[in-house]
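User: Quick sanity check before I run a bigger batch. Here is a single chain. Can you write out its predicted 3D structure?
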Amino acid sequence: PTRTGYDFSGWDNDGLNIKEIRTINATYTARNDTVYKVEHYRQNLNDDNYSLFETEDLTGITDTEATAVDKTYTGFHRDLTNSGDVLSGNIAPDGTLVLKLHYDRNLYTVDYEDYDGTNIDSQVIKFEGDTIPPAEPTRAGYTFLAWSSDGTNITGDLTITATYTANIDTDYTV
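Assistant: Done. Predicted structure follows.
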């Protein structure tokens, strides 16, 4: 006899010296190579939805509890409150168990500052996201040249400073 996820071990009675009607049952041993999956989802950059990033194909003992193990992804952290998570479950004999973990992008603060350290703008940006540069600041006797960074592909907290060139046609009174 066969049973999905189990190996036949034998009968619960040897069938010898039976003198009356008796039921003899098959016995089984749970397989230790029953498949299950763990899916790891990462938060999208441009919305708060998630996309499948990695699938682990694992094996375990039929009808025992499997628990998903967090992975480390640079710029991401586990979303411990995601209602779509399936952290553990019974390893189904037919291999249909799928555990799911979700990871949010880290958030970073990007400060735009003027030449003298005055804050012009602060933005909270997702890992690998881009800032929206504020309006170019003005400074008497100078022309705005550029920001010290293009503010793209943010991977940590960052201060971006306005840079200027001196105007050569500025009048001075002595």
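The chain has a mean pLDDT of 94.

User: Great, the batch can go ahead then.
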